[in-house]
Specification:
- With about 280 residues, the chain is an alpha/beta fold.
- It has one domain: Divalent-metal-dependent TIM barrel enzymes (TIM Barrel, Alpha-Beta Barrel), CATH 3.20.20.
- The chain is about 45% helix and about 15% strand.
- It contains ten helices and eight strands.
- The chain has an eight-stranded parallel sheet.
- Helix 2 links the parallel strand 2 and strand 3.
- Helix 1 runs parallel beside helix 2 and helix 4 packs across helix 5.
- The longest helix is centred in the middle third of the chain and has 22 residues.
- It is globular.
- The termini are close together.
Length: about 280
């Protein structure tokens, strides 16, 4: 049975991840996504020279609490990462390896001024070039790289993402399908069928089609039944990764409301899995 994974970004950027583990474990979650993009606050251990010690301590603490890390949101400054090796981006891979993480979700690079469909070939070729050394490092570490669809061209179309993964030609490269971004783009669930086994992980959240609201699934207007139908048809092998954090952040001063939201995430996650 597929597992429900929740992201540490349900709590504010910079929140101590050990404390977040405690909160999510108490709420009933056993599998987590580590939001490294929320670890850019002053003094954060991810940015220190001791980031690997921190990662190893997180792994030991998770093991003690019965928590596993399945995915993380990778980081990297595109202005650096896509032109030369970026230490922080590669650090994401090292942390992922230490935590036993299977997939590091990464954003593809935009091509400035060339975002329409006729430039998709350039978008693909440039991203293959940029991601090749990154995926090679990931392979060496035994960590997968999942390239995410985004709510802007050219990453808002399924075919270019498929072609990037094909161009990387690695079992350690795949696609992370983000439902909220897909809904903004107007991408229908059936369109992702062409990904086949390239679809390796998900970011599940909802909106009303006109903004990246990151709502709990079924709190917006996305076609969840359609998605579950196509995932079943595709024999999707990954997990269900929730990225529905905005309602939690809005309730940051109301712990009781946050507990209700976390309980609803588990309930909704189980309802969705039952449809696959």
């Amino acid at each position: 049975m597929m597992k429900i994974v929740n992201t540490t970004s349900v709590y504010m950027p910079g929140t101590d991840v050990f404390w977040v583990i405690d909160q999510l474990k108490e709420a009933g979650f056993q599998y987590l996504d580590l939001a490294l993009d929320y670890c850019f606050t002053p003094g954060n251990p991810f940015l220190s020279d001791y980031y690997m010690e921190w990662a190893k301590e997180l792994k030991a603490y998770g093991d003690q609490k019965g928590i596993s890390f399945y995915q993380c949101h990778g980081v990297g400054d595109p202005s650096v990462f896509y032109n030369q090796p970026d230490d922080i981006a590669y650090r994401s891979l090292e942390v992922a390896q230490a935590l036993g993480i299977q997939w590091v979700a990464m954003h593809p690079k935009e091509i400035a001024g060339m975002t329409d469909e006729q430039h998709d070939d350039l978008f693909v070729s440039e991203n293959v070039k940029w991601f090749t050394p990154f995926v090679k490092k990931a392979e060496d570490l035994g960590v997968g790289v999942a390239i995410e669809n985004l709510p802007w061209p050219n990453a808002n179309r399924v075919k270019p993402l498929k072609e990037i993964v094909d161009g990387l030609n690695s079992s350690f490269a795949g696609v992370c399908w983000d439902t909220g971004h897909a809904h903004i783009n107007g991408t229908k669930p059936d369109e992702i069928e062409i990904l086949g086994d390239r679809l390796v992980t998900l970011h599940l959240h909802d909106n009303h089609g006109n903004g990246d609201e990151h709502l709990i699934p079924m709190d917006g207007t996305y076609d969840w039944k359609g998605l579950m139908r196509v995932l079943k048809k595709m024999n999707y092998k990954g997990e269900f990764v929730l990225e529905a954090h905005h309602q939690m952040l809005d309730a940051k001063d109301n712990p009781a409301m946050q507990q209700e939201l976390l309980a609803r995430m588990i309930e909704v996650g189980n309802r969705l899995i039952a449809l696959v």
